[in-house]
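Fold this complex.
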Amino acid sequence: MSVLSDNNKLLATGLRIIAFALFPLLWFLFQAILFREISKAIPRSLLIFLAIAVGSTFIFLLYIGMNKIISYAPKQYQEGLYGAMFVGPAIFLLGLFLFYPAIRTIYLSFRDKYGDFSVGFENYIWAFSNDLMKITIRNQFIWLLGVVSLVILIGLIVAYISDKLQKGEAFFKSVIFMPMAISGVGSSAIFKFIYEYRPPPLTQIGFLNGLRVTGGQDIDGNDCKNNVIENGNKIGYTGEGCTEPIGWLQQRDLTKFKAFENVSEVDTLQSFFSNLPLNTILLMIIMVWMYTGFAMIVFSAAIKAIPSEITEAGRIDGASEARIFLSVVMPYIKSTIVVVATYITVTVLKAYDIVFVTTRGDFETNLLAVKMMDEFSKFLHFGRASTVAILIFISVIPIIVLNALRNREDTKI
Amino acid sequence: MKKSIIGLLLILSMLAVACGNSLEGQEVIYFGAPATDGPDGQAIQATFRDFTEETGIIVTYVGSENFESELLAQIEAGNPPNIALWPQPGTVRAQARAGNIIPLEDVGVDLDEYRSNFSSYLVGLGEVDGVPYGGAQAVNLKSIVWYQPAEFEKRGYAVPETWDEMIALADQIVAEGMTPFCFGMYSNGATGWLATDWMEDIMLRTGNGVDSYDAWVNHEIPFNDPIVKTAATYLSQIMHTDGYVVGGTDAIVSTFFGNAQDPMFERDSNGNPGCFMHRQASFIPGFWPEEAKAGLGTETTFFAFPQMDVVSDTVLGAGDMWAVLVNDEATQAVVDFMLSEDYWTGVAENWSGSSSTRITAHTGFDTSKYWSPVVAQQAEFLKAALQANVFRFDGSDNMPTEVGSGSFWVEMTELATQGPGYIDTALDNIEKSWP
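Structure:
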């Protein structure tokens, strides 16, 4: 009896392996060959039509056929086989389009420019010794730290306060949430206008520079204005003594500002602040603006889920509002914070659109994802591009592991 | 019913294939970097208007901002366009070495005629081991300085013919409380190219002129050679002399190159323009404000880059180069047309209405056909330089990309912000990065 069941098990596994790989493989190969052959002979429009027709019918036929085959199998295996039938193609496609490229990227990161020769760890040495790469990695750290903490902090505060609102909560929240509905490229374009710089004496169309040049007087006592026409006279800002506009996205430190003009190296705190990369921070603000709404919505839902008995109990015991927030609300929504932090961290690691639209990595504002594309499409160095891709991949791993561990803890409870 | 429709379609398509002996209805894809709906893309598409009517070959121009990476993907996938238009001849040579493109001779091009029409220098840019792969096409002129004659006349300024005269004029303008130069080199992801253009123009006119320029571009002399250092010092004189540049030194890297000339069209309360001179390539009118565009050639025109230590008529320019990736009869017909004298008529006569200022590299082209007198004048200029073999191609485009679109740009941006003290460091860094 036991021998038979072992045999049956073997048979079942064998059938499953076939279902897993063989059918999708056949399906894929058949179509690949078919379309490679006919694409030479048939005009493009007809080809597209055929691809849609054949592709979708084939999947349909594939499942019907597999269904039929499985129905001949012994009853007790059928359930398992049906599962394999549906999972099989997915696993196959995932392997083809995800695992294979990932492995190939790792392989390419040890090769030279066009992937022809092995270069050992040269690309990785480059990644940590090249000046521009070092700055890129530094920026990525600043972004991770700054964006993740700011988004969570502001999101939490806004969620907590809006929860306390007597009326207009929905309106208030939807206003904060609105940036989330704008694409990354769109938001970046909006902020690009805010930071825009025009050479004097042109009218400053950027919001920040418009504010900057308006107000104050020059040495002759004339008002400084952003080329405003008053009584038929144009009032500009080019007079000596007026504040000059600055290119915000080109400022790599704060030395353009009066407070930091003459900072000595001795004053460490002041010189630390004067060396803050202003343009990187300004770009980070775009992302914070975009994702605060998301964090707020999630936190708001978590805060609303807190049973009012708990907070009331705290109040009866005489805890202050701050104390309730820190000792009751925060522990309760801890796992939500971790989820949001994970999501934002991964998003920051993938951040591409903001830098691409605003500075495209010039003036020391580059991020890993943009650098990867630069190496790939600008310098056509596949080895280095793959190396940067692997760096991004590696930096995501700790977060995935942390998340997995946390998930296990949750299920234990 | 459905079956019969599919059957009908199949039969029809077979018929179409069977009748394809004439080139009627054949499609040729032409892939390049200028955006399809941009002025240049529209102009390129328009050049094929009459050709398509006559031969029936449908040429479709496709432009993409990510041209290079998309093209690579297409080549890897075995589905390349028939013809590709590279913005840099250096890439054409790299692709030729990689075996991805077809020599012009195999496409049926008469090489002697091609060389004599387009100058052996330009043809040479697309050659690997003496075999021409790239087809020369449009060029633009970089050795020019834009100015407004009326403003010069009003103040009694003469057009400077030498560098010293230009500096003297600049000093005079500064002394009169105005700003001589417009200078902006911010360009998304390519900041610094304007300074490299200046460097090239100066290199052509200092040291040993064209000879030291060629040696520099081919890295036969190091990047931190004294000749290059002298050129960088000249450039630094413009960028870092107090009052020379609109908005001061800091504004150079902050000003988008497409906005850089706008102060020239602006008048302050005394009626003075924001700047008087702007050294920029022939394509820049495309970036001018609408009102200024109308004054192209009358209100605003150009003078030649002033003479320096080595006196010559050298002209710096840039341009693109196409190459064939799929060799079939229709493509051969298109190539034949693109190398003919008539090809540029569509751009020159502005068929697309997009006012492209591209100039053909074909020396036999009738320059009076250009829609704008300024473009015609530039074309004359280029033609003379090509015929006299003193035309030189943008050096940074011919350097390895790590330098030409990497360290050279980055270090020139640094130089602009850091000041003349940074020249040595900048040149050393570029030298170090040369692969």
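Chain A has a mean pLDDT of 85.
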